[in-house]
Amino acid sequence: MTQPPMNQNVTLAEIAEVAGVSPATVSRVLNGDERVAEHRVESVNRAVRELGYSPSRAARSLATGKTGLIATIIDSNLEVFTDPFWGIVTTAISRTLQKSNLQALLMATPLNKADNMLAASLNSQQVDGAIFFQLHDDGFVAELFKQGLPCVVVGTPKSSKSIPYVDVDNATGARMATEYLITRGAKNVATITGDLAISAGRLRYEGYEAAIAALGQAVDKNLVVNGNFSHESGIEAMEELLDSGVPFDAVFVANDLMALGAMSVLNERDIKVPEQVAVVGFDDMFAAQLGRQKLTTVRQDIEGLGSAAASMIAEMVEGRRPASRMLQTELIQRDTA
Amino acid sequence: MTQPPMNQNVTLAEIAEVAGVSPATVSRVLNGDERVAEHRVESVNRAVRELGYSPSRAARSLATGKTGLIATIIDSNLEVFTDPFWGIVTTAISRTLQKSNLQALLMATPLNKADNMLAASLNSQQVDGAIFFQLHDDGFVAELFKQGLPCVVVGTPKSSKSIPYVDVDNATGARMATEYLITRGAKNVATITGDLAISAGRLRYEGYEAAIAALGQAVDKNLVVNGNFSHESGIEAMEELLDSGVPFDAVFVANDLMALGAMSVLNERDIKVPEQVAVVGFDDMFAAQLGRQKLTTVRQDIEGLGSAAASMIAEMVEGRRPASRMLQTELIQRDTA
DNA sequence: TTTATTACTGATAGCGCTTTCACAAATGTT
DNA sequence: AACATTTGTGAAAGCGCTATCAGTAATAAA
């Protein structure tokens, strides 16, 4: 409760004076330099406490060439706004960065046209590193990375895998989901895919494929229908599947949003879930738990995504070169399968 | 497509040399000082372009005492993570700040115990201002504000109204919703309230009350049951309402999450919506449009909240003192009323 | 004891910008 | 024609730190 005085304008020089040492020594103490006599460390710390001193970031940046800032860039063209995803991930980033004395600079900007503005921000000594979110065009990121800016992308980069990235293990998650359906007794597992142009879409489909292949079977093309991750496309895909007449008793849907759409079609046509058709989604989005039937789905560790990205960038800032990471998923069994 | 060279280490001094003027003049041009001869302005701009120069934020901060940074503080104890709210609002903030050459610094931190750390970040010359999200204890903010830090809170501050804030007009929105229900022919409009300890909860209830009062009636206490904004509490509240036996033909629910819960109870008991009971929610959360019956609700302008907060803080940074703002809501008619 | 290390510490020189301040040139005023 | 203003510019002094470098005191090695 005893708020420290926290004077706005105390400078290192004043601390030096009060503590009776040179500015250099104060700086050493502040930065944890070992070889300072114990009694001086103490008197410096005391002065810091008493005057409520906290060093100026600007001055420090200017002197060191480090800003302590990490750009967190979201392509505002992207519609990540269907879920708490972005909030959770940025919060995790911010929290994790704090441990390395870094801070997150938020940048929402259309990635294509902003090239220049963004480049200006990133290229000069404005930030120590940058975290990008899955993007259509990662050529820009590759460029920056090559120029020496520490970068990590959340999601799987399209072109240059040389950029460190962190992603959810989409393929394994999808495979687990499909295998679960099979284990539950499904004979014909259909799938509604996401946008196959996006890595998450492709990989989830490949996971489905792998599960079928493990059975020694080939994928029946009639059982796969393409969606684009939208709720609407889930509805359409399920209608198409049903109308085609192919028999199926389970469906793996590439994300919850489409799964919810698919479920509403199933409900309308009075097809019992999971008795007649079992369904499992992917993402464990918030709304998955809202309906009268809660969705069985593959949960991705969103918070983990953020903190992994943050700690990777922190490593890079310190000069190391972290390996890309793949986060495990978890099958959440609920009402629909 | 032609990426500018964008050299990492061009300094103002080099620009001065290339342009054949003094550093002071370069600085003037960069900052739009009027009284520089036209031909010099041009040669400076040319040099800037050719060398791909962009000024160092740190140096500028050190010289001016301004950082160009706005802290965006989210109390990580809070569960804002049920909706895209946070993502939308921060994106809007970031985008709006850019217009004033400011940037958003993200800080997710438990507000109570972090006092010290946060205070350290905010108090010294680390940021030019701060945006806070609705918080239980705004005493901390009041403190900072009194100390001269430009602050804006998103939501309605509990204690000190002297802090500039921006909020959705909860009362009017709730009143509109209730009146709509009445206009539609409802004779007995019930309400499920939110947490009345939170301003949004209280104000939405007051809006309901006002609509009833406008009819010249008093609120029938049997028609109001308290929830706490959670899905679960919506379910419970509706069960209570139904079990109590009080007749009602419409219900205004203080948020969509509870409304969705209430709806599922109505469905289970085969009560037709909106024929037997009309329902309208509040928030227009994403999931409101997902079910088979899309929720009629009061939309709040989340993006507006973010950009208002951002432009208010920008004004304050420039020394002005903006008035608090109240954002209008909009009734979105869908399937449930 | 003399010399070579080691342990601490303080001057001091920037980091890259802004901003007085002073001054010259150009313009305006009696 | 003499003086007072206004304009446009550069020199130079910081802004608050860090980091190099050199120097003194204390310790180890010869």
Beta-strand fraction estimate of chain A: 15-25%
What does the average pLDDT of chain A come to?
90
Q: CA-to-CA gap between the ends of chain A?
A: 52 Å
User: In this structure, how is the largest beta sheet of chain A organized?
Assistant: 6 strands, parallel
Category by helix and strand content of chain A? alpha/beta
Give the beta-strand count of chain A.
12
Q: What is the count of structural domains of chain A?
A: 3
If helices are DSSP runs of H or I spanning 4 or more residues, what is the number of helices of chain A?
Answer: 12
The assigned CATH architecture of the largest domain in chain A is: 3-Layer(aba) Sandwich
Radius of gyration of chain A: 26 Å
Proportion of helical residues of chain A: 40-55%
* Overall geometric form of chain A: elongated
What is the H/E order of chain A? Answer: HHHHEHEHEHEEHEHEHEHEEHEE
CATH superfamily of the largest domain in chain A: Response regulator
Strand order of the largest sheet of chain A: 2-1-3-4-5-11
Biggest interface in this structure? Answer: A-B, 63 and 63 residues
The CATH class designation of the largest domain in chain A is: Alpha Beta
The oligomerization state is: homodimer
What tags apply to this protein structure?
homodimer; about 325 residues; Rossmann fold; DNA-binding; elongated; alpha/beta; about 40% helix; 3 domains; 434 Repressor (Amino-terminal Domain); six-stranded mixed beta sheet
